[in-house]
Amino acid sequence: MKILNIVYLAIFLIACNAPEARESDGQNNDVTISEGKTKEIVSHHLEAFKNNDLEEIMKDYTEESVFIAPDATYTGLEQIRTSYENVFKAFPKDSMTFTLEKTVVAQDVGYILWKAKTPAVTVSYGTDTFIIRDGKIIRQTFAGVFE
């Protein structure tokens, strides 16, 4: 029984001291990647989208952010803002049904699979991938099947 307790203690200590995922910041320094922060940003982004809250959604981006969609690539705050102004016209919060099918977070990557229906458009399959750094979306891709 003592040996089993020692094994459990050893496993617990190893798990508690396991290194977190790390990346280089480009200056030969390691930076911890926080899955918790990635989840927080993806959740904030989804709530802002569902509420058509442009100011909140823009808090998730920086001037260096890039948003790649089938129709165009949007770079920087001004272009991304204009993109969402147009998206919110097609996805008004008061007449949109939005269903989140799947969310996956792996270190600094967030992935969502969703569908939505509005009076103007139906998206039977929508997917976004987010790369999060320092609490901001630095890269995002979107693809969807529109009906």
Number of strands: 8
The overall pLDDT, averaged over residues, is 85
Helical stretch count?
4
CATH class category name: Alpha Beta
Can you tell me the overall shape? Answer: globular
- Helices and strands: which structural class? alpha+beta
Give your account of this protein's structure.
The protein has 147 residues and is an alpha+beta fold. The protein is 35% helix and 40% strand. It is built from 4 helices and 8 strands; from the N terminus they run H-E-E-H-H-E-E-H-E-E-E-E. The protein has a 6-stranded mixed β-sheet, covered by helices on one side.
Write the layout of secondary structure elements.
Elements: H1 2-16, E1 22-24, E2 30-32, H2 35-50, H3 54-58, E3 61-68, E4 73-75, H4 76-90, E5 97-106, E6 109-117, E7 122-133, E8 136-146
Parallel strand pairs: 3-8
Antiparallel strand pairs: 1-2, 3-4, 5-6, 6-7, 7-8
